Amino acid sequence: MRVILQDLLLDSKTIKAGQKILLSGTVYTARDVAHKKIIDILDSNGELPFNLKNSAIYYCGPTPSKPGSVIGVCGPTTSARMDIFTQRILKEGVKFFIGKGSRSKTIANSIKEAGAIYFSATGGVAALLSKTVKTADVVAFEDIGPEAVYKIEIEDMPLIVAIDSFGGNIFNF
Amino acid sequence: MRKIKSKTIISIVEELCAGANFELPEDVLTSLEHKVFLENNIAKNVLKEIVENASIAKKEQIPLCQDTGTANFFVKFGKNVRIDGEEDIYSSINKGVSSGYTKYYLRKSIVSDPIERDNTKDNTPANIYLTLVDGDKIEITFLPKGGGSENASALEMFIPSLGWNGVKEFTLSVVNNKGRNACPPLIIGLGIGGDFSSVGLLSKKALLRKIGSENIDPFYNKKEKELLKDINNLNIGPMNMGGKTTALAIFIETSPVHIASLPVAVSIQCHSCRRKTVVI
Prior knowledge:
The complex is a heterodimer.
Chain A: E1 2-4, H1 5-10, E2 20-29, H2 32-43, E3 56-58, H3 83-91, E4 96-99, H4 105-113, E5 117-120, H5 126-130, E6 133-140, E7 149-163
Chain B: E1 2-5, H1 6-22, H2 26-36, H3 41-60, E2 70-78, E3 81-84, H4 89-103, E4 127-133, E5 138-145, H5 147-151, E6 154-158, H6 163-176, E7 186-194, H7 196-206, H8 218-232, E8 247-257, E9 262-269, E10 276-279
Parallel strand pairs in B: 1-3, 2-4, 7-8
Antiparallel strand pairs in B: 2-5, 5-10, 6-9, 7-9
Helix pairs in contact in B: 1-4, 2-3
């Protein structure tokens, strides 16, 4: 089933946990340090170089891109590490998350309450996933190398709907 | 005394960095391919993606995983060999890592300080474990290890009376808790004995064994088989989405130990079990 992020913004209840989908749309990469920096900027009333409202975050730190490539290889990192930031990030209006592995019960609940969705990508298949990235540009924190925020356009990225906005969750915990 | 140029070691290490990160070892790939037929639905699909990914990475000579790891080197250094040049074995390996990770566009994932966290920008320093052996050769095994699976590893100091059951329960709980999010199917290195500082390394060295190889100790051979069955009955499955394949293998290494102690370490390795050995 092909899914476009823009369509999900209109109605997030069109997909359910456990469904295998091919996702397309605009996504921002962010790992631990990027999350911390984003929150520090917001806390000090600063302005982010990109808009979080209705956005999608991909927990990913790609390898450097070879000359001639759009991006290096770019698979998901462990989502649970970002749980400590997720409630705050949801308040900023982020609607979609892509990562790997389960989330805490609290975060699974917050995702449901916010009408957001968490997608799980297969970990360790970064070469395969990189083929779905059509454009990539660094938009923030270039100084932290692999942990910088990239704005990427994905096309038909193979994902599983892991936590849906009905409260469905494919993980036991 | 045989002489080996430090330049030779540096360029061999550069190629090891690329080779190990671009190609899954044959034993790991074969094991994954077999498991595709065992599974259904999501689990089967995940395994298919893993196998396809290995084929893309090999063909295009790009990394299997974006986490190209901490650079671990296990070196068997012959007593009758000497390094010729300005570098010793440690600096030769670090120079090879620095230039290899840069030249082959591998991710630099090492920060110089655990709290300050400034990236060293060339993935050094490597972890180098040196053993002196007979002969005039140097054997270098490279194990790039991702942070996610390393974070799922654990160590415990048990009392001896807990015996094998204590070891078994601990291993199962490590896999069942953090291990499930460390990109299963896993390879598990179980170190038992030694002391607090040596048991972790013992468990990591266990990860160097090939899948399908038998433990030469009959007791632990049997225990490996039993424990693998128990782990695969946890229904964690590939990528924690349910299934029969939670682990591809468990390897046990033991060491003599103090009468008061039973140290146990569980090294968790994700399915992207990258390792490569070169003998110079």
